[in-house]
Amino acid sequence: MDQPMFFSNEWADAVRDALTAGPTKQQREGKLDEYWDFYELIKSLYPASWALGCRDLPASVGKAPAYLTVRWDGGTVITCQITGPDDPLDATYVLDMDYQGWRELHDGFDPQRTVMYRKILLEDGDLLEFFKTIYFFVECLAIIGKVPAQYPETTAD
Amino acid sequence: MAERKSPTAVLREGPRALSDAQVREIEEADLAEVGDVDIDDVIEYVHKDLKSLPDYVTLYRKYLKQRWDVYDLDFTQDKIDWTEKMSEEERQSFIAVSSGFHHGERQVEIELPVFMIGAGEEEKLHIAAQIEDEARHTVFFDRFYREVVGLAGDDIMEVLDASFQWVSETFVGPFGLLAYQADEVRRNPYDERARVRYGTTYFLWIEGVLALSVMKVTLSYARWRGFLPAYYAGFTATCRDESRHVQGGMRYLQDAVRKDPSMITEIHNTLRTILSLSGVASRRIYFEPLGWTEEEVQILFFQQLRRKLSDVGIGLTPDLEELLGQVQPTLAGG
Question: Residues of B with CB below 8 A from A128's CB?
Answer without folding.
Answer: 197, 269-270, 272-273
